[in-house]
Design goal:
This protein has helices spanning 38-52, 67-76; strands at residues 2-5, 8-18, 21-29, 57-59. The protein is an alpha+beta fold.
């Protein structure tokens, strides 16, 4: 899924989904749009979409030193 600001792509995310379980594969926001809500909106959108699918488990993996990602996940999840 690609996020846009007007007609400009600013980020994307992808996840896998199988038998009621999903895993966030990647989420990326271009530097000029980081810390401005694009990542939060994309992750919230993904969660809402997966809820509609009755997803029972949503997993992600992140390095503890990836402070930006950890902050995003704590904020949204």
């Amino acid at each position: 899924v690609v996020a846009y600001d007007r007609n400009t792509p600013v980020g994307y995310f992808c996840f896998s989904y199988l038998l009621g379980e999903a895993e966030l594969e990647r989420i990326c926001v271009i530097p000029d749009y980081q810390r401005r809500g694009a990542g939060s909106q994309m992750l919230s959108y993904a969660i809402d979409y997966l809820r509609e699918l009755n997803c029972s488990k949503f997993m992600l993996e992140v390095r503890s030193k990836n402070y930006k990602a950890v902050s995003l996940y704590k904020k949204v999840l």
